[in-house]
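Feature request, filed as a ticket because there's no other form

It would be nice if the structure record came with a short human-readable summary line next to the tokens. Right now we just get the raw output. Example of a typical job, pasted below so the devs can see what we mean:
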Amino acid sequence: MAEAERIIGTPDIPEAAGAEPEHTDKSAASGERSDSPGTRDPSAPDEAPGSDSDSGSEEKAAQAERPRGKRRIAVLFSVAVLAYALDLGSKIIVVAKLEHHEPIEIIGDWLRFEAIRNAGAAFGIGEAFTVIFTVIATAVIVVIARLARKLYSLPWAIALGMLLGGALGNLTDRIFRSPGVFEGAVVDFIAPKGFAVFNLADSAIVCGGILIVLLSFRGLDPDGTVHKN
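Raw output as currently delivered:
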């Protein structure tokens, strides 16, 4: 009987032995799948979400600010050069054609061109303080030049350009016209009825100043920052 059980049970032993390699092959296959390129290793460090996109957006913002700053500085000096050229050209014509001549009526008695020399500030104010106004004009030019480095606002560029051109126009008169350096009299020629005589530089200064006041009330800074009250 024992001999019969031994003979019958011996074929089952190779099958059991052959089952282990099959199990081992499955484990190896599953191990290969876990090492495939698409599978993430849990021990690998986590990547910071959005780090690439944040750095890319910062670079784009920096690139957008550089040309914008250059354009505003170009606007500032373009407006200043235009205001200065118009003022200087008009004064040359007035001195050559109107000085020591009769005034020219433009709109009857309401507006006429009359050449006069003004030792004071705009609209004939403070004629006894010529040197002081010269120093003030120089200081204004220096301040505007410093602001130009952080100028990103187009309205501010226009306002400061008018202010700069007007200040340069009157400062040129004070330096190069008689009676002496930094004491020269400014040429004025626009004479409305019942109002002080002025020139184009005075007009540019006043318009630029009014625009600056309006921009300040609206909360707009020269660097483009808007303050909401």
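Something like this underneath would help us a lot:
The first helix runs from residue 2 to 9.
Residues 163 and 218 are 19 Å apart (CA to CA).
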